């Protein structure tokens, strides 16, 4: 699978995975888990947005940054800067790249040098002249092929992201076999987690990762799988190839320092300008008040917001994604334009093969000013189910009303 499909469901939720050619869940309990998942998936969704999101990257423990298709399981959702993404400075993501002191080939060579004996093929990488230097490939030690890779970036060491990226998720929200947090003598925070490539362990592709956040603002995120790809691939071995002590050594290696030092420091999370896409949760909750359906839960981060409605007939998830885009690339070409110039695409159908019995009603819109609004409603409290009712709590017309609300005209400025 091309790396392009790997990096945008910023930071899962954020859907696709790392891309050398960039295009990239609460306060507690399940809400916090969803926020983290949304961020990670956002980070893997599309490159230009990795440039935006790993610029404030996001961390969640499913839909990893390296390898696999990274799809968010919301087919029509656009990639978003994220799983509280910090917005980039006004001068854009290009300012986050380094000088190119470390080349893409050198990134690959460093990764290979830190692996045990074996074959390393299908490699793809980016140097420090691009946002998020990285290296990934398929490693085979004779026991089966496995995708492995690492991403480097800079974050605000005093920001919430550094802590969230190195904090274990709650087990009731994210399936994992083990998770360890460690505070190193130099003040760095390390997370070692053995989890799965989906929100639960129904799928057997294992995702093991080591994430390191240092006091200097360096973030290193390494992932390995027991398959040559994640998600849609079948395992080729019982476990990923590297034991967790080897994964720890991988992110602690001084060999990555030149690439990290070539990247400019990340801006403070508290100093970032806020835009309308950062208030998706509030906007969605406000827009749904008119339907007078009790809200059982709500949350989100950045351009991703969700509420779980409960009318007594079964809980129903409603999601909102907001993104400012430069053009219509990736937007459904067959979406008709309305009198005010807004293009809208309505889809109804199964939520996906990984969510049996779950249906999703989505309205994806693109406004003349470049604001893309996507609203999805499910007949389940989670994207992956289980289904709790026969249809979403909102009708298709109500979903459309939210996506086309005049509120967005004011936000978009047109």
How would you describe this structure to a colleague?
The chain is α+β, with helices and mostly antiparallel strands. The chain folds into 2 domains: 1-268, no CATH class; 276-412, 3-Layer(aba) Sandwich (Protein Transport Mog1p, Chain A), CATH 3.40.1000. The chain is built from 9 helices and 13 strands. It has helices at 29-43, 47-53, 104-113, 160-165, 244-252, 257-261, 280-288, 396-403, 407-412; strands at residues 119-126, 134-140, 145-154, 176-183, 189-196, 206-213, 218-225, 295-301, 304-310, 315-324, 343-350, 359-366, 371-378. The strands form 2 sheets. Strands 1-2-3-7-6-5-4 form a 7-stranded antiparallel β-sheet. A 6-stranded antiparallel β-sheet has the order 8-9-10-13-12-11, with helices on both faces. A hairpin with an 8-residue loop joins strand 11 (343-350) and strand 12 (359-366). Keywords: Membrane, Transmembrane, Transmembrane helix. It comes from Streptomyces katrae.
């Amino acid at each position: 699978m091309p790396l392009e499909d790997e990096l945008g469901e910023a930071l899962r939720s954020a859907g696709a995975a790392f891309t050398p050619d960039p295009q990239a869940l609460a306060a507690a309990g399940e809400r916090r888990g969803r926020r983290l998942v949304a961020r990670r998936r956002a980070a893997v969704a599309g490159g230009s947005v990795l440039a935006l999101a790993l610029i404030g990257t996001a961390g969640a423990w499913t839909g990893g940054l390296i390898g696999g298709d990274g799809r968010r399981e919301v087919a029509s959702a656009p990639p978003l800067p994220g799983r509280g993404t910090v917005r980039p400075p006004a001068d854009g993501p290009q300012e986050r790249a380094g000088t190119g002191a470390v080349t893409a080939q050198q990134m690959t060579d460093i990764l290979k040098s830190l692996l045990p004996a074996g074959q390393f093929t299908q490699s793809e990488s980016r140097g420090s002249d691009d946002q998020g230097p990285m290296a990934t490939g398929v490693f085979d030690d004779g026991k089966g092929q496995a995708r492995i890779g690492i991403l480097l970036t800079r974050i605000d060491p005093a920001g919430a992201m550094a802590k969230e990226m190195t904090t274990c998720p709650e087990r009731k929200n994210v399936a994992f076999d083990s998770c360890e947090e460690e505070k190193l003598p130099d003040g760095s925070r390390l997370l070692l987690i053995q989890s799965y490539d989906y929100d639960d362990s129904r799928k057997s592709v294992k995702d093991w990762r080591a994430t390191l956040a240092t006091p200097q603002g360096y973030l290193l995120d390494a992932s390995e799988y027991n398959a040559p790809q994640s998600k849609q691939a079948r395992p080729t071995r019982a476990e990923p190839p590297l034991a967790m002590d080897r994964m720890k050594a991988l992110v602690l290696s001084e060999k990555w320092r030149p690439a990290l030092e070539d990247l400019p420091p990340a801006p403070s999370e508290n100093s970032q300008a806020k835009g309308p896409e950062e208030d998706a949760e509030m906007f969605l909750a406000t827009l749904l008040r008119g339907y007078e359906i009790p809200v059982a839960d709500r949350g989100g981060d950045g351009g991703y917001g969700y509420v779980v409605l409960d009318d007594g007939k079964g809980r129903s998830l409603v999601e909102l994604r907001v993104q400012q885009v430069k053009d219509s690339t990736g937007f459904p070409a067959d979406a008709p334009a309305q009198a005010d110039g807004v293009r809208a695409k309505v889809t109804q159908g199964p939520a996906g093969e990984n969510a049996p019995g779950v249906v999703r009603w989505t309205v994806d819109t693109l406004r003349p000013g470049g604001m893309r609004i996507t609203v999805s409603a499910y007949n389940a409290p989670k994207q992956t189910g289980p289904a709790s009712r026969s249809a979403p709590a909102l009708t298709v017309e109500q979903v459309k009303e939210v996506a086309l609300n005049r509120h967005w005209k004011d936000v978009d400025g047109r």
